[in-house]
Each structure stands twice: as structure tokens, then as C-alpha cells.
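To the team - nicotinamide-adenine-dinucleotide complex, inputs and output below.
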Amino acid sequence: MLTHNQLNNTTTSTASEKHLSVRSPLDGKLLASLKESNKAELNELTGLAQKAFIHWSATPVKERVQVFYNYLSLLRENKQQLAQLVQLENGKTLDEASAEIEKSIELTEFACSLPQLCAGQTMEVSKGVECKTIYSPLGVVASIAPFNFPHMVPHWTLPNALVLGNTMILKPSELTPLSSLKIAEMLESCGLPKGVLNIVNGGKEIVEAICDHPDITAVSFVGSTPVAKIVYKRATGNYKKALALGGAKNHLLVLPDAHPDMTAGNVVASMSGCAGQRCMAASVMLAVGNVDHIITKMCDEARKIIPGQNLGAVISAKAKERIEHYITSAEQQGAKILVDGRNSLVRGKEKGYYVGPTIIDHVSPEMSVATEEIFGPVISIIRVNSLEEALAIENKNPFGNAAGVFTQSGALADRVIKQVSAGMVGVNVGVPVPREPFSFAGWNDSKFGSGDITGESSIGFWTQLKKITTKWNPEAKVNWMS
Ligand code: NAD
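Output:
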């Protein structure tokens, strides 16, 4: 386990007096106190990253990727320890934390395949004249991460950006910075040259400084929609390349012919996994026609999920309060709470932040539980009479990260696939996260900027194309395009 002293060794010294307290959501205990980075430190680290870029970008991609092969082995060897750290700082269960590390491994495997994907093109375009393309790195880039996947989200950006020749400023969530520090420490031990990856700690101020920094060329962001909008606008306003992934309100359409056990299990796992703190979590269930038998099974499933046992904590006392407030407001507006996760306490961890799985029935489309991102283990059931009605509600919601349908009809599933307004769609899958090499990103207010954050699409984001035309045969005639 990472100790406080090890943490301090991995941070650079700063003149700032401000400190960040990192607490475990599991029991409220203080895990670490980190120096908050200020503008001077960002300047210093960006300068180091610029210097490192000169050598790193000139290193052939096949050499750069060797660091990540070493890193892949280290990730596999330390899976358990890394999962424990994620659990400690984020509050999810150990199984969920282990799955997060598995995904980081898969993302790193993809990064290791980049030399195969970024070879560029070459063609003899006229006699003795050749055109070729090179994917050139951008320079110093930034990655800003949220709290909910402290290990995986940095792996959406960092391995690809670095293998492609960039150097990076990584800004983890101030609530969960420890996994990022560990990632930097591990990469350094794998041979990543100093200055290629740099971590700054803090919140709003340091993010704004990143967006304004003249020597940072691109900014990727993952977090809530209001902040995604601010970051995208500020970074592009400063003429940077930007991609900002925002929040979500994912709708699952449950049709009467859906397989009852599979549907109940998947919907409940989707809404309660990681305590509902996933941008891919089910938040609204559109119950088409009579699906009471499935709802009964969902309640049975939800009652088997016990905070502190197979359900982790939510990130903070503030988050617990916010989630419970949403449930209470739905109740006051006439919705029916079928399973109530409010006031959950875990014996021996009374200072932890727990909310049990919550199923709210008879929600109307205007209620705040139906329109706003709750980010907790809560699902709101809206009853509708037809598929058209369900699709209209889904289409009207401003987000567009994920959507799903539960049915045994291929034709109905196909209609939903074509008509939902979301970037990632599940058929009988509650959490339709694409596995590599399929890329990740939503639509609408769940993403600002073009392209996806992972997969081949990320090559376009982290590089710019250089087009070279060459002629070595002086005897060749000047032609129409010379
Ligand atoms: P957040 O928006 O509060 O914070 C994200 C990052 O922005 C953090 O690093 C934080 O320090 C920084 N930040 C916070 N407020 C800021 C401000 N006013 N100005 C500049 N920077 C600021 O998000 P969070 O609470 O850490 O994470 C949860 C959110 O992230 C949810 O909305 C969730 O849906 C979303 N999320 C989206 C995806 C996706 O792929 N679309 C993935 C994971 C999480």
C-alpha cells in the first residue's frame, strides 16, 4: 500500500501553502494531505514537459512503446495492490476496483498496438514523386480526470497520448489523486523519462490555469457536464484542441417480452454498480406496457445488495446528502419508493458515506429524478404505454452517453438502436461500455468536441497529420501540379 511518505516523494515541491485532504469514503478516515499545485508549479512542470518533448517525440514509436510493455507487466503483477488503493480512495468494492484495473490493462494493451495503427500512408502519386503522411505529436497536452474511476480514466488518455509522442500534465480529481500518483511512480520505474508525465493537484483554479496555459496544446477532460462546458469553452477559446466528456442520464427501455431474470439482474447491476457513480449507469427505466413481473424481480435483486458488503460507498458526505435529497423530493412529488436506500449505516464504518440501492416507481418525466444526473444507486421508473412514447422521452433528455433496450425481439431492438440519441447503446446489456478497440464517448451534452476519447479515434486527437511530398529524380518533368 502507498504510504503518506511515498506520496510526498512523488509530488514536486511547491511554494503554495494550500493542502488537499484526501479522505476514504469507506470510513471518512484521512488518507493523505497533498500540496495543492499553483500556477508557478504548473509553469515549472509545463517547462519540464516541453523539454522532455524534444527527446521523447524524437524517439521512435517502437521504442516509446517499450515503456508501456514494461508497464503492462507491472500492472498485471500489482493488480491486487492497485485495486486496494482505488477502493480506499474511491470507496467502491474490491471487485469493482479490480475490474477497473482490468480495464486499465486493456487500455494499455491497446496503446501498445498503436505502432501498428499509426504507420501513416505512402504512395507514388506521379512518376518519381511520393506523398506520405506522418502522425506528429502535439507537444505538451493535458488530461483532467473525475473521481469515479481514478485509475481507469487516466488510462483513457495517458497511454495513447504518450505512446504517440506527447508529454502530459495530468490533473486527477482532488478527491482521488492517489492512484494517479501511483501510476506516475510505476511508469517512472518502467523507464518513462522524467518530464514526460507530470501531475498537478487541485481543483477549479489549476484546471483554469491549464486551459489558459500558452504552452499546453490540447486538453482532454472527463467530468460533469457543467464543468465540461466550461473547460471546452475556455480551452478552445485559447485556441487549444479540446475534447470534454460530460455527465449522463442513461435510459434503459424495458419491453414486456424481455427475459425477466436477465433484465432484472442487469438493470439493478447497472444502476447500483460502483454505487451508481458511473457515467454508464442506468438512471431512468422506461417501463413499456406491463413489466410488473420484472420490477418485482428487480426489487428482490436490489434487496440482496447491502452497503458495506456488496455495495461500496459514495464519494462524500455531500454526495450522500445530494442523492438522498433527490429521493425525498421524488417521494414528496408523489413517486413511490419501492426500495429505499436512504439512511444507510454500516456498522464499524459509521463515518463512511453509504446509500443503499433505491428503486423509485411512478416517476413522471418532469421530476428532477427523471431529468437531472443523480450519480448514486438510484433508478427512476417511468411508466409508458408504447415504444414511441419511450423513445420520445429518451430523445428529449439533453444527455446522450448511453441507452439500452431489454427485449427478445431483434426487430424492436434494431428500432431502438436506430432511434435512441446516445453514443453507446446496449441490447440486453445494462452497462454498454465498448471493449477495446471499440472507442468510448457519448453524444449531445455528454460530449463536447469531436471524435472519441479512446480507440483509433484518439490518434486523431493526440496527433496532427504532416503531409510530405518528395521528388528525387531531377530528370522528371514539371507537371500540372508542380
Ligand atoms: P467534476 O466535473 O466535478 O470534476 C471533474 C474534474 O473537473 C475534476 O478534476 C475537478 O477538479 C475539476 N473541476 C471541478 N469543478 C471545476 C470548475 N468549476 N472548473 C474547472 N474544473 C473543475 O466531476 P466529478 O464529480 O469528479 O465526476 C463525476 C462526473 O463525471 C459525473 O457527472 C459523471 O457522469 C462524469 N463522468 C463522465 C464520464 C464520461 O465518459 N462521459 C466518465 C466518468 C465520469
